[in-house]
Amino acid sequence: MVVLSQPLVEKFSHIRTCKHNTSSGHVYTGIIPVIDLLDPEANTLIIKACQEFGFFKVVNHGVPIEIITKLESEAVKFFNLSQIEKDKAGPANPFGYGSKRIGSNGDVGWVEYLLFTTNPELAHQKSITIPGNSLLFWALVNEYINAVRNMGCMVLEKIAEGLRVEPKNLLSRMLRDEKSDSCFRLNHYPPYPELLQALSGRNLIGFGEHTDPQVISVVRSNNTSGLQISLKDGTWLSVPPDPFSFFTNVGDSLQVMSNGRFRSVRHRVLANSLKSRVSMIYFGGPPLSEKIAPLSCLMEEQDERILYNEFTWSEYKKSAYKTRLGDNRLSLFEKKTNPAQ
User: Fold this and answer.
1) What SS3 state is found at 179?
2) Residue of 240, 205, 249, 245 whose CA lies nearest to 107
3) Hey, which of 80, 171, 218, 252 would disulfide with 282, CB 3.0 to 4.6 Å?
């Protein structure tokens, strides 16, 4: 019998676990919508995916593979550094290096990360110290962000066309705005082979269940599984990894702008006990002053009830920072129905 030392037990005692059973964690390769951006029917298919899942895989995305692999290589180099070296890029407040702590309200996970704003001119971004060849690292980050932002804008323009709203850049302009409050995150979920016996078949939760507050999120990971999305009935669906494709999440803001037509997908990441998982996420956000509300052009087409009160992105962001990771942040902004007279 192997007895774990007390320091090792304490190492993960504050990290939540879940049972990875076949009913909620099976990999269904045929369910996740796959969108070929070169497909003439892509507009329609994206709309359907946003309505049914709030999530879809993107192929023929136009982002060069070398941009992806070069940045992943630098990310792996960083996360393989000693803890002392990595800590030089932190603590995350909110940008910089962080480990296990997610946000400021008590959420934790089996994850370490680098979080950056996509505006490289901001002072706190320049103060983040990346050990090694920092010039190369920042050049690769900015190159990747520009490429993925362009792809995300293409997706949003196809959504606008699919919804028949004008102008075509009604949604994408928020990401292209020089004041766009977007951010970029590199996540590393370390393996934990020494903990297998103690966990008795359960998985460490790398990043707890949540929705993304922004407009859309664009995710890419290495070939290690772990990402799961919640279906409408609450079932957790494992997403097969594909290092050559991207996955797009509908965010809270887009759910509001579509007046609930689209669903902001609830998702989580389970850490892999034997393999390291590295993911790169672009969170496409609007400018802080942007007003978020159901699109008036959608409301004019049919007599439907407006589900959400108008708010600015700044107001929603401040509200979100006060909540726990898994909270329903949009509930505070839902329009209340008047009781029948």
Assistant:
1) coil
2) 205
3) 218
246-250/55-59 β-pairing: antiparallel
CB 163 within 8 A of CB 48: no
| Residues lower than pLDDT 70 in the chain | 1-13, 20-30, 120-126, 301-302, 338-341
pLDDT at 13: 56
What the block records as the tokens of 319 is 């509200």
| pLDDT at residue number 200 | 76
Residue with structure tokens 């409408």? 232
- Sign of the alpha-carbon torsion through 142, 146, 151, 153: positive
Strand residues in 119-215 grouped as ranges (E)? 183-189, 202-210
Say how many residues make up the chain: 341
Q: In what order do the strands lie in the sheet with 246-250?
A: 34-36, 55-59, 246-250, 216-221, 277-284, 183-189, 107-117, 96-102
Active-site residue, selected from the candidate residues 220, 266, 277, 329: 277
Query: Which is nearest to 298 in space by CA: 166, 169, 168, 173?
Result: 166
pTM of the model: 0.92
pLDDT of residue 198: 78
Is residue 277 among the annotated active site residues? Answer: yes
